[in-house]
Amino acid sequence: MLGIVCFLLITGCLAQEFKMDESFQFPESIEKEHFKNATFCMFNTEQNSIFCHGPMGSIECDAFSNTSSVKYPSYGIGKLSDHSNSESIKYFLYPRNLEKQNYFNYSLELDGKSIDMYLYHSNSADEYGFRVSDFKCFQGLVNLFKSSDHFHDAKIDGTDSSVKLIGEVLYLDKSIMKRWFYNFYYPYYSWYSWPYSLWWF
Questions:
Q1: Number of structural domains in the chain
Q2: Which of 4, 120, 186, 201 stands the most exposed, by the fewest C-beta atoms within 10 Å?
Q3: CB-based contact 81:92 (threshold 8 Å)
Q4: Cα–Cα distance, 157 to 177 (Å, whole number)
Q5: What is the tens place of the pLDDT at every residue in 77-133?
Q6: Nearest to residue 189, comparing CAs of 12, 14, 1, 69?
Q7: Which residues form the signal peptide (predicted)?
Q8: Which domain, by its residues, includes 125?
Q9: What is the pLDDT of residues 18-38, one digit of tens each?
């Protein structure tokens, strides 16, 4: 429920911004289907929950974050080709700074060691990223991600490589909320701007 409230507040603020700027026009090449078929998520640090919205609707799960040592505000969700075993599925997470379009690789160096970032299901914190402990709720996330048929080709910083992303997870903490609602900085989903940004298309 809280995720839905956050989503409505965020999209409401963005709508007001566009209303204030009467000169803003979406390019003709952007179709409504893009909005229907893309997926985005928010991780709420105070409630320890992840809320995702996609073509099939919305879902909110209790979740845990093991990202404090990495400290990125946004993570692209890598596209998977095989969803046959939900229990073992791990979605690669590609960190990104809010002011940048390029993403970092899911495999990072931390304290001289290589770590991988995932969105996954487990009863124990055995990986870095976002963990959903309730398997049934995680299955709902998987089904939501499977329903998305609009992907973003994201460039990996410092390389010539790119990856396909299902969507993005915003790490929603007090600093993000303060910048959004008081400094009118938007969009935090740099490839969402109502709620998608234009360069994503």
A1: 1
A2: 4
A3: no
A4: 26
A5: 999 988 888 888 999 999 999 888 899 999 998 888 899 999 999 998 889 999 999
A6: 14
A7: 1-15
A8: 2-200
A9: 333 344 344 444 445 555 667
